[in-house]
Every structure is written in C-alpha cells, then in structure tokens.
Automatic annotation (TrEMBL):
Pfam families for this protein: AI-2E_transport
GO cellular component, one term: plasma membrane
Membership in a protein family: Belongs to the autoinducer-2 exporter (AI-2E) (TC 2.A.86) family.
Membrane topology: Multi-pass membrane protein
Name of the protein: AI-2E family transporter
Keywords, comma-separated and alphabetical: Cell membrane, Membrane, Transmembrane, Transmembrane helix, Transport
Subcellular location field: Cell membrane
Regions crossing the membrane: 12-30, 36-55, 67-85, 153-172, 213-229, 235-258, 270-295, 307-332
PANTHER family, A to Z: PERMEASE PERM-RELATED, TRANSMEMBRANE PROTEIN
InterPro entries referenced in this protein's UniProt entry, alphabetically: AI-2E-like
Amino acid sequence: MPLSTNRNIWQFLALTTILFVLFFAILFYFEDIFIVLIAGAILILIVEKVIEIFNRCMDRFPNCNRKTVGLILLTGSGLLVLFFLSSQVQGIGALIGDIGNIQQDYASGASALFTEHESELSKLADSGLIKPEDLQKIGNTIFSGITDLVSKVSYYFLTGVLVIPLMFGMYFKHHNKIGDYIHAYAPPEHADGILRALESIGRELEDFFSAKMLESAIIGLICCIGFYLGGLDGWLFLGILAGFLNIIPYIGPILGAIPPVIIGYIDSPMTALFAVITVVIAQTIDNLYLIPFMISEKVNINPLLSVILTLAASKLLGPLGMVLAIPIYIIYKIIVKESYVELINIYNKD
C-alpha cells in the first residue's frame, strides 16, 4: 500500500504514538505491578496451551472423566515439583549453612563464604595478592544482593497470589466474549479492524513468548543435566533458574551463571568449572541453533533492529525493558499498521 500524503492521517498516527509511549511509561513506572501482570499473562498462556494439549489427548479416550483425570494430573505434578524444588533448596541452604558455622573467625559471613577449608581465595588473601577487605566487600555485595532478591521475590509472590487468580478468572470468563463486546461498543465500521488488530497482536505475542519459553526450557534442561553430572548441590533449582534468567537478552545468561558457579566453588573449584562448562555449552547451543532457527522464524523482525531496540530499551528501562523490547515493538507495529489501514479507508470515503 502506497504511503498517504494526507496530513490528518500522520497527525493521528503521531498522536497514537504519543499515547502508546505514555501508556507504557506509566506501566514501567509501576514496574513491580507490571512484572506481576506479565507473569500472570505468561501463566495464562501456559495454562491455555496445557489445556489445549490435554483436551487433544483426552479426545482419544472419550470414556474417561476429564475433570477427574485433570485433577489427578494437576495434583500429582504439583506435589512432584514441590518435592523436587524443596529438596533442592534445602540442599543449597544446608551448604550455605555450613559456611555460616565458621563465621566466628571473620568479620562477616561474606568472608566465610570464600574461606571454607582454606580455599584458594583465602590463600590469595593471605599472600597479599587480594586484600581481605576487598574480599569482604565482594562477599557483602553478594549477600546484600541475595537479601534484596529474597525481598523482591516475596513481594512478587504475595502480590501474585492476590492479582493472578483475578486475572485467570476474568480471562477465562470473558475471553470468548471479546468479539461481542467490540461489536457492541465500537463503531460498526471499525469493529472488524479492531478485532483484526487484537487477533494479530495476540497471535504474534503468543508465537514470541511460546518460542522464548521453549528456548528457556531447553537451556534449563541442558543446565540441569550438566549441573547434575558435575555434582552440583541444588542442580535442579539452579538449572531452572538459569533457564528462566535466559529470557533476559545478553545479561540473563551471565546472571544465571553466577549462582551455580558460587555454589560450585563452595564445594570445590572443579565443581565450579563444571558449572562454567555447562553454561558455555548451553549458550553455544542457544546462539548457534535456537535463536537463529527457532526464535527468528517466530518473530518477523530485522536482526539489526532487534539488537538496537533491545539495547535502547535496556538503557532506558533496565532488564525489564530488554525482555519486553520486542513484544512492545510488535504491539506498536500492529497498532500503527491497522490504524493506517482504517484511516486510509475513512479518508478515501470522504
């Protein structure tokens, strides 16, 4: 479609862009609530996919009670996940607790983290290559970071418990009626365009997040296997964490590598080395195979533009901006495209 020279069309699109930027600026201002809403939307997507697969499987067994089978599978899988994760977290806690028992020889628990059993870092500090106060600062930074992380996770969990069930209720109650609402309240001549835009946004965002979740699951599985073979305590929890943090472009893999390397070094330098090798293998597979052949097929966007958007969003909005740069661009592109088509139709009629 050729570009229009009508000034009114471009003024409307400029106003749309300003409103779009203001809308997301408000969401990012209330970042903590925004993160909970995103988590809820992703959980809804996962649940909807699981229900779709479950119904497809149950169609082969028409005599089975779907509600009973679904309840048994849901309860069993939930208990299994809780059992594995709790045992993993307890293992990590016990390992760190052992370090805490030797705190009396040092000014802080951070120093103890690096000095269990006369570790290499402790020897370096004694030789003067590393100052003890620098070692202490590094440890204190790690512990303060862990404290902040626990505080934020607690806030997200409590807020999620309150907000996400409401999101589930509203979505599964009204998602089949969205078309009826639009036809009832939107101008009749624009209702189809609005529905078309919403369907395009939903489809492209679903493709993007489905691909990202599959990518994270594969990376998490590779890390779990590598951490287990390397004898890392809490291998399942740390592998899942590495896969989850892989969602964040560029810095996510580094953040995901820090906990297993620290936990591995507490055990032995060789265990830490296994953790590093595992992360390197996972990232090699991700960058050479998953991103080029899986993510790029799902998201129709120029690679250079993708990098520019991600880096700009990270500068302006931090890690959350890096994660949402591409989805926000997808939404904006579809809104502008569909608005342009509707405006062309309106002014052509006039």
